Amino acid sequence: MKPLLKLKGVHSFYGKIHALNDINLEIYEGEIVALLGSNGAGKSTTLKTISGIIKPKEGTIEWEGENLVGTPAHKIVEKGIIHIPEGRRIFGGLTVTENLELGAFTVRKNKKQIKEGIERAFDLFPRLKERAKQTAGTLSGGEQQMLAISRGLMSQPKLLMLDEPSMGLAPIIVQEIMKIIKEINKQGTTILLIEQNAKAALKLANRGYVIETSKIIMHEEANVLRADDKIIKAYLGA
Ligand SMILES: Nc1ncnc2c1ncn2[C@@H]1O[C@H](COP(=O)(O)OP(=O)(O)O)[C@@H](O)[C@H]1O
Ligand SMILES: [Mg+2]
């Protein structure tokens, strides 16, 4: 089977900082892949490079047989790749529904599709339905993360990339978000998940990649990573 997404020898820089050094990574359709690593390792840069925010200096990013390198970010969204960045950037002054409508705007969906998308989001996150007319800024942190994810889903992506969705949330809310990520995957969306919470991520994921100081040092089935001494020590809190 051919991978949906394949990074080959990718190098990305911020000025002179070599943030990604020869990244090779594959994601197959239907998978949940976790990207683990400590602060500053290059996790967010990997997502930014895939979504076209950063252009790699070297390497290729193959998506359905096409090299994405050089494709502008909004075109990459149209191809079915959505990146939910760190820190849930929702529009605090707009209502929940208005935020969702904006999620569809990037792909210019028609009214009926937008309505269906909002219904899907509300099925997935009943709490957002209750708060449909509330301004997003008044939502709790967990609800804002749910809204950020729902907004990303409005364009019906094939690949959803999540950058630390559990950041700053209470454990019970983290569990809820993880459950919903699993559900989104079951409904047919492939997932690339960055998590500091490696335990939660590896419970969910099929496979994982470990990135350390700009390089992939390991990639394995999630259950193999969960049993690996080095991973346990470094990321799972022995
Ligand atoms: N906007 C930026 N300008 C300069 N350096 C950056 C920028 N963003 C990240 N970096 C550097 O790139 C490296 C990788 O960062 P990042 O991908 O954000 O790590 P992670 O998400 O794994 O914590 C780090 O050394 C970080 O300091
Ligand atoms: Mg990061």
Explain this structure to me?
The protein has 238 residues and is α/β, with parallel strands linked by helices. The protein is built from 10 helices and 10 strands. It has a single domain, classed as Rossmann fold (3-Layer(aba) Sandwich). The strands form 2 sheets. It has a 6-stranded mixed sheet with strand order 6-7-8-3-9-10, with helices on both faces. A 4-stranded antiparallel sheet has the order 2-1-4-5, with helices on one face. A hairpin with a 2-residue loop joins strand 4 (58-63) and strand 5 (66-67). Helix 3 packs across helix 4, helix 3 packs parallel to helix 6 (141-153) and helix 4 packs antiparallel against helix 6 (141-153). The longest helix has 16 residues, at 171-186. Magnesium ion (MG) binds next to helix 1.
Walk me through the topology.
Elements: E1 5-14, E2 17-27, E3 32-36, H1 43-50, E4 58-63, E5 66-67, H2 73-78, E6 81-84, H3 96-105, H4 111-124, H5 126-130, H6 141-153, E7 159-163, H7 171-186, E8 190-194, H8 198-204, E9 207-212, E10 215-221, H9 222-226, H10 229-236
Parallel strand pairs: 3-8, 3-9, 6-7, 7-8
Antiparallel strand pairs: 1-2, 1-4, 4-5, 9-10
Helix pairs in contact: 3-4, 3-6, 4-6
Residues 14, 17, 19, 37, 39-45 line the site of adenosine-5'-diphosphate.
